[in-house]
User: Which sequence fits this backbone?
């Protein structure tokens, strides 16, 4: 026993001794290092950014230096005895900070916690660091009310709290910090008015309060900020006017109050801001005239007053703004002529004045004295010709003149304008030759010259436009000429439209045509045959060759194209038969071959007979009967007699069957007689036709995921139409209410809504029959790589469909379940909203019984209003989901917990868009719409009409 005890005693003694040796360095470490180690232990460091925050291998108690001074992010004084700076920015840190973690750092001058994921309340202990000169907590997830006590930091110069999730009122006591020069509370959820105390800052240079939920009137006291050079307070929802007192901010260089719900006139006192370089007041409800006095702000470089209710002319005094680069007054009610002096502004590069009431000619020297890059004067009443010097400085990229009354020939300066990317001059009265030298315009991608009076044909050098995607010269009836041989072989060409242009000559061959989606050549004099090389156009969706002189057979290669949806070959001289492959095409929606010389049978089960008129030798279901193999003409008298015999026998059999099973039907079903309602686009089927179609395949039916809580399956109706069938059940007392909404859903017709074709119902349930679209839903394709233009198209299409339901249906129809699963794509990849109204139907059925609802109409009205708000919120979520390929599927959390700059950067990276790319501003505006739509308070969200106006406004800019 004693032998065992002795080694045990020695071992225990050794371990105690060893542990004391190991503890000595820890005990001798300075308290500042220990405090930082404590901080490290409490926060989340998923990227191991603080890996060098470790204890030294040796330590000396006589050493007064702070060991942490060598760590990353820690700044000390010269002899390393005080920590004066702590920079933890951009280290992917997270967690919750406690009040005690900074108590020792009383000498701290700079504290930077920015671009991390710290959350919950901002620790009040920071406000005890009274030597702080810079506090940066931007781009985090701090939430709750901003704590009081910030005024304790009486040496603070910079306070940056940008892009957090703070709520409640702005802290008034921040105004007591006399040394403060930078104040940034933008990008959170602060609410209530701007404190009038914010007008008392003594040394403030920069103030940013934009992108919150601020309301009330803008305090005129802000006009007392004589030292401020930069103010951004827009993207809130204020009341009333811009305070005229802002004209007293004598040092102001940058003022942004865009998107702020401001009304009234623009105060002329702003002209006193003689140092002002940028003024952004767009997207408000400002009215009245643009102050003439603005011509005195000589330093002005950017002026954007777009999307307001402004009247009157552009002041002649603007001719004095020699530093002006951007003039934006689009989407107002301005009128008069554009002052000639605008053309002489030496730095002007962007002139966007579309959608107003301007008239007269454009200034004759426009482009002569300045390097114009972007001109958009569309949708006005301009007359005259394009100024000859428009591209004389060789940098013009976008020329947008559509929907005016311009005349004359194209400006000579445009013929070799090598910088052009986009030209839209449709819907005018231009004449003469199309003098564009396509070989000298290497980046040209979009040309629309339709609805003019051009002549001289399509330039043969169009074949050298390697980046051309869209070309439209339709409705120039005197254009004439031919289509050159390589035109339809352009590698990037997606849309070629030359309808009603008097074009003649042989149909051109197809080369690679890998990108071609739409080809429109109707109402011309084109002759010859459709070449078999059309098989190269594997992406072709729409082909319109109607009203020409084409001959030969319809090539089977056309019928074999995988995505072909619309084919119009009417009013030609085609012969032979219709290729049978058209009958098996899953994408074909319309084939019009009327008024040709076709013969044989029609390979379709269902097609409007008018699509085949004018072909005496054609036969089939849609026209006259075809002769059978024994020579018996289907539809002859003999056949009719045989048919009557069969029908009579069938009636007898049916009568017997009905007598035998009638009792069982009513006892077992017990749900009343089935009725059928058909809407436009569905043949007049009976309820039995429909029920047999999907009940007969009950065991093997093609199930798809339930949408909106309803049972759903595919079914093939008697004529071969494939539909989606959705089952809705209801309580008998709710039937009439439900039927009313279903009828309104069926009558809702829009290009971005899936059609409700009809429904059959009894007292307890209904089966809804909807279009079955072939290209799946957005959820299945969310990770598909798309360019920005395609994503933008999807977003606008969703907005249009939803806006139609909200604002063009009376009463409004809420979608109720807007999400990626319920956005379906047709043959042209056009998005359609499906399941609209279905979830609301279910909610109506599951709501309180009529006996419990005192005012049913009022109850339903409130339910609709709430559902509309939810639709808008879900639309905002979808925007982010589309832009990030599904990575951000919860818009509310993303917007609340991520700064707008970080979010924008993520989206730009996801879409391979460089920060300098012009697309950035478009993406930024779409993200702003997502932010507005996902605001916490429903009343703060825009209507779908307003949301559509915001997102679709981008397109009009060209």
Assistant:
């Amino acid at each position: 026993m004693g032998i065992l005890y002795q080694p045990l005693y020695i071992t225990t003694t050794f371990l105690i001794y060893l542990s004391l040796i190991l503890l000595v360095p820890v005990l001798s470490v300075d308290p500042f290092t220990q405090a930082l180690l404590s901080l490290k232990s409490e926060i989340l460091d998923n990227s191991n950014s603080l890996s060098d925050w470790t204890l030294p291998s040796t330590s000396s108690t006589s050493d007064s230096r702070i060991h942490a001074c060598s760590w990353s992010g820690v700044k000390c004084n010269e002899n390393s005895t005080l920590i004066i700076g702590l920079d933890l920015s951009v280290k992917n840190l997270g967690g919750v900070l406690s009040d005690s973690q900074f108590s020792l750092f009383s000498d701290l001058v700079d504290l930077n916690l920015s671009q991390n994921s710290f959350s919950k309340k901002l620790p009040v202990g920071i406000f005890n660091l009274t030597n702080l000169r810079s506090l940066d907590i931007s781009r985090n997830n701090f939430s709750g009310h901003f704590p009081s006590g910030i005024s304790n930091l009486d040496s603070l110069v910079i306070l940056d709290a940008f892009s957090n999730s703070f709520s409640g009122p702005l802290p008034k006591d921040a105004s007591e910090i006399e040394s403060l020069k930078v104040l940034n509370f933008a990008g959170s959820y602060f609410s209530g008015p701007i404190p009038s105390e914010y007008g008392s800052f003594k040394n403030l240079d920069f103030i940013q309060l934009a992108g919150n939920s601020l309301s009330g009137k803008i305090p005129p006291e802000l006009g007392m900020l004589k030292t401020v050079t930069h103010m951004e307070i827009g993207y809130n929802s204020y009341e009333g006017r811009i305070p005229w007192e802002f004209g007293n901010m004598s040092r102001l260089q940058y003022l942004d109050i865009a998107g702020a719900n401001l009304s009234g006139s623009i105060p002329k006192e702003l002209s006193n801001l003689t140092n002002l370089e940028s003024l952004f007041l767009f997207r408000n409800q400002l009215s009245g005239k643009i102050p003439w006095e603005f011509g005195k702000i000589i330093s002005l470089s950017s002026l954007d007053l777009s999307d307001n209710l402004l009247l009157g002319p552009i002041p002649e005094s603007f001719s004095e703004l020699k530093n002006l680069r951007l003039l934006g007054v689009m989407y107002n009610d301005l009128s008069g002529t554009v002052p000639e002096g605008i053309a002489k502004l030496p730095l002007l590069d962007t002139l966007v004045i579309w959608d107003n009431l301007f008239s007269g000619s454009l200034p004759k020297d426009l482009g002569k004295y300045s390097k114009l890059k972007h001109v958009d004067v569309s949708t006005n009443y301009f007359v005259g010709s394009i100024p000859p010097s428009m591209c004389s400085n060789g940098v013009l990229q976008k020329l947008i003149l559509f929907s005016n009354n311009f005349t004359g020939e194209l400006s000579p300066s445009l013929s070799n304008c090598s910088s052009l990317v986009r030209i839209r001059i449709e819907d005018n009265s231009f004449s003469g030759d199309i003098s564009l030298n396509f070989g000298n315009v290497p980046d040209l991608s979009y040309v629309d010259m339709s609805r003019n009076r051009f002549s001289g044909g399509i330039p043969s050098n169009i074949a050298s436009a390697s980046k051309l995607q869209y070309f439209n010269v339709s409705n120039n009836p005197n254009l004439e000429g031919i289509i050159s041989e390589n035109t339809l072989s352009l590698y990037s060409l997606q849309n070629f439209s030359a309808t009603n242009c008097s074009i003649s000559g042989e149909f051109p061959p197809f080369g690679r045509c890998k990108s071609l989606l739409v080809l429109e050549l109707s109402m011309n004099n084109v002759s010859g045959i459709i070449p078999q090389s059309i098989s190269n156009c594997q992406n072709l969706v729409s082909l319109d060759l109607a009203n020409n002189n084409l001959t030969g057979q319809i090539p089977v290669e056309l019928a074999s194209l995988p995505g072909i949806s619309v084919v119009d070959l009417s009013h030609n001289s085609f012969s032979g038969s219709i290729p049978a492959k058209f009958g098996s095409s899953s994408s074909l929606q319309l084939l019009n071959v009327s008024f040709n010389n076709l013969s044989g049978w029609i390979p379709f089960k269902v097609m409007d007979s008018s699509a085949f008129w004018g072909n005496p030798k054609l036969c089939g279901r849609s026209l006259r009967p075809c002769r059978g193999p024994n020579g018996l003409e289907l539809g002859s008298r003999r056949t009719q007699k045989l048919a009557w015999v069969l029908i009579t026998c069938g009636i007898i059999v049916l009568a017997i069957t009905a007598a035998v099973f009638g009792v069982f039907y009513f006892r077992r079903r017990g749900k009343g007689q089935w009725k059928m309602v058909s809407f436009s686009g569905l043949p007049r089927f009976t309820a039995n036709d429909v029920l047999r179609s999907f009940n007969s395949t009950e065991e093997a039916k093609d199930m798809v995921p339930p949408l909106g809580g309803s049972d759903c399956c595919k079914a093939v109706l008697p004529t071969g139409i494939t539909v989606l069938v959705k089952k809705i059940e209801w309580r008998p007392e709710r039937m009439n209410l439900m039927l009313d909404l279903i009828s309104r859903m069926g009558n809702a017709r829009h290009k971005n809504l899936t059609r409700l074709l009809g429904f059959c119902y009894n007292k307890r349930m209904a089966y809804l029959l909807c279009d079955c679209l072939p290209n799946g839903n957005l959820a299945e394709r969310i990770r598909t790589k798309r360019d920005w233009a395609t994503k933008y198209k999807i977003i606008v299409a969703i907005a249009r469909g939803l806006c139609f339901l909200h604002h063009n249906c009376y009463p409004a129809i809420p979608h109720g379940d807007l999400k990626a699963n319920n956005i379906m794509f047709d043959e042209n990849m056009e998005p359609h909203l499906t399941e609209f109204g279905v979830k609301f139907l279910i909610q109506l059925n599951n709501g309180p019984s009529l006996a419990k609802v005192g005012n049913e109409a009022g109850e339903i009205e409130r339910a609709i209003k709430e559902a509309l708000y939810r639709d808008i919120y879900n639309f905002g979520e979808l925007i982010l989901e589309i832009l990030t390929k599904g990575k951000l599927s919860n818009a509310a959390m993303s917007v609340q917990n991520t700064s707008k700059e970080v979010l924008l950067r993520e989206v730009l990276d996801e879409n391979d868009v460089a920060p300098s790319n012009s697309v950035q501003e478009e993406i930024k505006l779409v993200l702003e719409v997502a932010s507005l739509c996902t605001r916490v308070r429903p009343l703060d969200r825009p209507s779908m009409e307003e949301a559509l106006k915001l997102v679709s406004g981008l397109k009009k800019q060209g």
Q: What stands out?
A: The first helix runs from residue 2 to 28. The first strand starts at residue 44 and ends at 45.
